[in-house]
């Protein structure tokens, strides 16, 4: 079958050659193919042979025709470069060793450079398009040449300007952040400066919100987005435009992600909350005020946000945080009430169970006697549920696990269960404290 294909291809080529022999190549439309009719005929034939060789997967022959065309008529047709790039991609994939592969990669990059030189003014696929493609290929084929990758993407973005592909912007910036984290080639000031510069690109492209999110995330996790660096970046910008809502939102989002707690962050977040109240900002402020042991201020923001929030998922987050703050403030009954509401809104979140279990354990002391000891059964059950649901990276998980042992050590003894006429495995309803009414199982210590 393969032989038949080659025979048909050869036959088609012969027909094409015969047909071309009867053509007149002296017309101006053929001028780019050579200085004389004979040169033009030869180059057009070589262009046809390039296509045939590529279609037949004879990439060595295709590369020879390509070299001849680039030497004799480099500005004849953009198709030469389109096919040439495909030829060298195939040769790269089939290279026998690293040296050969690198040589083919260099040839591919030269194809893009020549295309940019001769067809950079193309209306549809001009310089910006060509350099964008080159940058992506450079990243794919030369992943270890970090400086070369950054250079290729910068050239592409410079050529694209405001019309650059947002995906290319993110690819460049993500690699820049990776280089900051993994090498000593990029300094934090460069990452911050590029973030500042490229943020303006996304301001002009509000439709690229998803790409903007990836852009911000790359900066947020880069390590360059430290609280100190962010304060330098946004301090000057907010001084110049203190009421810019978009700028305030960006500053609060990035500083929240970096767990900032400085006076600058609090002032910025409170100002943004006053302009545009939201659950996310309230949660960020509450976390900082909780860390500062200003529980009243934390509760103020959380309750204000809860009063106007309609979305159940956001209400659940606020209630869970209210429970945590209440627990820290030793408001056991308030924390338990908020945790129950949060649990009812999302039974698969481990945090409300974590809060409730501690509330049960803390209130056991106020019960006294056997009733207080029995409360630890409910505390243990609830904390076990928290351990089951909390993710492995939760900041509460280890505390929850250690609490299980504490609760178990406070169970009533066998004798105490006997004197209260309770057998192991029987059902028991807690009668006091925040766990009153909770049904659990009798388990002697």
Describe this structure in words.
The protein has 445 residues and is an all-alpha fold. The chain is 72% helix and 1% strand. The protein is built from 21 helices and 2 strands. The chain is elongated, with a radius of gyration of 35 Å. Mean pLDDT is 90; it is low at 1-12.
What's the layout of helices and strands?
Blueprint: H1 2-21, H2 37-55, H3 59-72, H4 78-93, H5 98-119, H6 127-141, H7 146-160, H8 166-182, H9 188-203, H10 209-220, H11 227-240, H12 245-257, H13 263-275, H14 279-291, H15 295-308, H16 312-328, H17 332-345, H18 350-367, H19 369-389, H20 397-409, H21 414-419, E1 427-429, E2 439-441
Antiparallel strand pairs: 1-2
Helix pairs in contact: 1-2, 2-3, 2-4, 3-4, 4-5, 5-6, 6-7, 7-8, 8-9, 8-10, 9-10, 11-12, 12-13, 13-14, 14-15, 14-16, 15-16, 16-17, 16-18, 17-18, 18-19, 19-20
Amount of helix = over 70%
Strand composition percent: under 5%
Give the spatial strand order of the biggest sheet: 1-2
Tally of contiguous helical segments:
21
* Main sheet attributes: strand count, strand direction, barrel closure: 2 strands, antiparallel
Identify the overall geometry.
elongated
| Spatial gap, N to C terminus | 81 Å
Low-confidence stretches: 1-12
Radius of gyration: 35 Å
Would you report the number of β strands?
2
In sequence order, what are the helices and strands, one letter per element?
HHHHHHHHHHHHHHHHHHHHHEE
Secondary-structure-based class equals mainly alpha
Keywords: Signal, TPR repeat
Signal peptide: 1-21
TPR repeats: 279-312
